[in-house]
Amino acid sequence: MNKIDIDSYQAILFDFDGVLCECMDVKTEAFAELFKPFGEEIVKKVVKHHIENGGISRYHKIRLYYGEFLGSPITDDKVNEIAEKFSKLVVEKVIASDYVKGAKELLEKYYKKIDLYVVSGTPQEELDLVVNKRGMRKYFKGVYGTPELHRAKIKRARLVATPGCYPTAAILSLAPLVKQRLIDLDHIVIDAKTGTSGAGATPSEVTHHPLVCANIRAYAATTHRHAPEIDQELSKLAGGKVEAHFTPHLISIVRGILSTSHVFLQKSTSKKSLLELYRKFYAREPFVRVLEELPQVNFVVGSNYCDIGFELDAAGNRLVVVSAIDNLVKGASGQAIQNMNLMFGFDETKGLEVPALRP
Q: Whole-model pTM?
């Protein structure tokens, strides 16, 4: 996109991650409607499971609900068919909901003038439905919004999908290694931990702080919806298919993500050479800091920074890469602003030059 006179265009920023992925009320209603024909008890089971397991993708939920709750296992084609119905229901409910009150009128009145959409962490099939719903698909071609990897494309884009929080931390921590194919791409294990704010503002037993503060919980251990984003970007970097093994955990903090990746080098190397690799890769990146020590969450909370550090085992073969971000800033709205700045031709760091809460 060329530089824009901001006063001459309608710029609408929608956080569709909040609408479509974290708007649990709307998704709960959609699941309840889908399973209503099977009776009230089934609906109660489905709703309870959905609310308590927000990170699991709808495909896995649908397969589970039919297989375990109804005792009727279904094929992949049937799962996809039901998932499509679910997505359409969600989109219809979102557009009709108070959550986007006023936005509908703006879209209908001004959509031909819209030159900017910032869409956070939205699964592509849901994004297509939303855009097509307004007849705008011909105006936009989406770009995955990691500035460190796709800056040139973001500057030209009219539709940017800002990455999810977990993928941001994982992808940035692994990008230099994967790009150079220095690791075994078949054995990438990512263990990530986050706080309660990652689940949105809807109250639930799972994120109720008096319960969370005395607990650590793994969830969606093999089925988290952010896993495809990680695989997509690592595959692009590698120039071939990569499937990482990703498991998230909920811990007793409010903000922040600590992502720990276990990888295995193709040949022995030194920490010095790895530091040189990372520092060269991120040399011109204003929000990535490569450390000699392992990162800590409270050094990034409140900021748009991603801190990366690692430890190498004695043999020089096994590498543990750790990254830390604020899930609400670099993992969400901060990165969206960073993308907006690039799209409008502004200084990329504007509005984001805020230090972390520590030190």
A: 0.74
